[in-house]
Amino acid sequence: MDKLILTAAICGAEVTKEQNPNVPYTIQEVAREAESAYVAGASIIHLHVREDDGTPTQNRKRFKAAIDAIRRRCPDVIIQPSTGGAVGMTDLERLQPTEIGEPAIGLDHPEMATLDCGTCNFGGDEVFVNSDRTIETFGRIMIERKVKPEIEVFDKGMIDTAAKMARKGVILPPMHFDLVMGVQISATARDLAFMVHSLPPGATWSVAGIGRYQIPMAALAIVMGGHARVGFEDNLYIAKGILAVSNGELVNKVVRIAFELGRPLASPAEARKILNLPPLKI
Ligand code: KMH
Ligand code: ZN
Ligand 2 centre from 82 Cα, in Å? Predict the structure, then answer.
């Protein structure tokens, strides 16, 4: 079994300071939260950015400022911008973070970015739209820009869509998936096993359990040989009724479980190897 890669989704586009005052909006807050997760053991930061008032944005300058600030505090962490953005954004808006270089680590592109492989209901009237044409366009652009996709899937059909896109040559192997459990497909052990057994051969995977399922899903991934994503984007609580003080606190909880279960943690360099990313030249 590979060492455990922990991703911290530190901010998201939907959660607010009204729900948990520790949700980061400003660049300084984003960098603080990234550092808390990195110090606790996260090797990937899944990144959304906000305006100072909390409005989600995909503005490339705002992403660049956030990435530079994170990089100063976390020299070797893998930064994975979102191309999902927020519900209702256009494809062009969403793609902006793929245009940003990372000169501090000698790259003219981000190492990774998300690639959402289907449309999904987000509650109420909110629909997160990803047509086949969008997925194909994003896949092609990521190949052109040398950005490794983290393929986000919210149900089993999206895994099949990703496999179809791979057959078309717009997603390259080895594929890395993030299985989002508890938005569309239920966050149960049975459904997680079903998702994992539906992955294309050779794929790696992490799980993002939503809300109270975050830590139980991470625990399942630890024993199943997958990887795990935690953080405020998906869950704001460290225990029932108790708000988490930082993303680092959530990462630390999973690190403790992994230690007890005997699964060692991957460093960023080890995560790059597992994900088939080139090593850093710094
Ligand atoms: N905020 C959602 C609309 C991603 O980061 O790629 C999209 C999302 C997925 O969070
Ligand atoms: Zn996201």
Answer: 5
SS (H, E, C) 151-175: EEECCHHHHHHHHHHHHCCCCCCCC
Select from 44, 48, 49, 121 the residue to mutate for testing ligand 1; criterion: most ligand atoms less than 8 Å from CB. 48
The total of other beta-carbon atoms located within 10 Å of residue 105's CB is: 16
Average pLDDT over residues 25-43: 98
Q: What are 106-120's pLDDT values in tens digits?
A: 999 999 999 999 999
What's the pLDDT at 272? 98
Q: Is the pLDDT of residue 139 over 80?
A: yes
Res 281: pLDDT:
80
Would 247 be classed as within a structural domain? yes
What total number of domains does the chain contain? Answer: 1
Calculate mean pLDDT across residues 268-272: 98
Residue 277 included in any domain: no
Best CA proximity match to 81, nearest among 107, 61, 100:
100
Q: Whose CA is nearest to atom 7 of ligand 1?
A: 84
Question: In this structure, is residue 278 part of a structural domain?
Answer: no
How confident is the model over 35-92, as pLDDT tens digits? Answer: 999 999 999 999 999 999 999 999 999 999 999 999 999 999 999 999 999 999 999 9
Q: Does the CA dihedral 234-95-43-5 come out positive or negative?
A: positive
| H helices, E strands: number in the chain | 9, 14
The CATH number assigned to the domain holding 96 equals: 3.20.20.70
For residue 195, the enclosing domain spans 6-272
Token reading at 254:
């999973």
Closest CA to 271 of 80, 77, 98: 77
| 44 alpha carbon – ligand 2 mean position (Å) | 13
The answer to whether the beta carbons of residues 222 and 228 sit under 8 Å apart is: yes
